[in-house]
Design a protein that fits this description.
CATH class of the largest domain: Alpha Beta
CATH superfamily of the largest domain: YebC, transcriptional regulation domain
CATH architecture of the largest domain: 2-Layer Sandwich
Oligomer: single chain
Number of helices: 8
Number of domains: 3
Number of strands: 10
Shape: globular
Distance between the termini: 16 Å
CATH topology of the largest domain: Alpha-Beta Plaits
Helix content: 40-55%
């Protein structure tokens, strides 16, 4: 997905400095708060979006108290919890398509910030619809290296899986429709196989092969975009040439 391993992203995020960790927590709190307000209440068993947000927060070792406060903030519906979910479209070096998912309470701040980051790193903003048509919203599960592929495939046979891939680092990614995500997670949990990450992602329907030089440029651009407080997720359609 997105041309590089989701597990690699997890490892990279775990290695962040304390300052970056604080910024990451701010984004996670924002996602939990918005998920509570917009996703269907404070019960994660009844609110799939909130359940995924909490899972992501726990993966980043966010304290339980922080999670509870974020949920309460969403329930209260105070002014600080009002954010719009917006997807901006862009092109990076070599014409790589980029989707930038933001939660923002001020588009007049977010748009200029994104434009500056893109322009400084060989990219540019794109017209609405010019990039997004190349992506589909999908659910995913990631298994860390060391999990036997055969075991994953055996359990996956009970589910409606659209695609699976064993990455070069031997992590395994399963892709399915968003509607099948919860059933797939429950199936693997019932069979005692623990996944490292799960969630919803924008998966490119067609990938763009790029050179190692371009690949590194795009990764650097993604890093810069993720440093912005309004940016929640960044997706691309690039694939490193073999």
């Amino acid at each position: 997905m997105a041309g590089h391993s989701k597990w690699s992203q997890i490892k990279r995020k775990k290695a962040k400095t304390d300052a970056q960790k604080g910024k990451e927590f701010t984004k996670l709190v924002r996602e939990i708060t918005v998920s509570t307000r917009q996703g269907g209440g404070a019960d994660p068993q009844l609110n799939n979006r909130l359940r995924l947000a909490i899972q992501k927060a726990k993966l980043s070792n966010m304290p339980s108290e922080n999670i509870k406060r974020a949920i309460q903030k969403g329930v209260a519906g105070d002014e600080d919890s009002h954010f719009d979910e917006v997807i901006f479209e862009a092109y990076g070096p070599s014409g790589v398509g980029i989707l930038i998912l933001c939660l923002t309470n001020n588009r007049n701040r977010t748009i200029p910030n994104l434009r500056v980051i893109l322009n400084k790193n060989g990219g540019n903003m794109a017209n609405q619809g010019s990039v997004s048509y190349q992506f589909d919203k999908k659910g995913y599960l990631v298994f860390e290296p060391g999990i036997p592929l055969e075991k994953v495939i055996d359990i996956a046979a009970e589910c409606k899986i659209d695609d699976f891939e064993e990455k070069e680092d031997h992590s395994i990614e399963l892709v399915m429709s968003v509607s099948e995500l919860e059933f797939t997670k429950e199936t693997f949990e019932r069979n005692g196989l623990i996944f490292a990450d799960s969630g919803v992602s924008m998966v490119p329907s067609n990938v763009l092969p790029v050179s190692e030089e371009t690949y590194e440029k795009i990764l650097n651009l993604i890093e810069k975009l993720e440093e912005d407080e309004d940016v929640q997720e960044v997706y691309t359609n690039m694939l490193l040439k073999k």
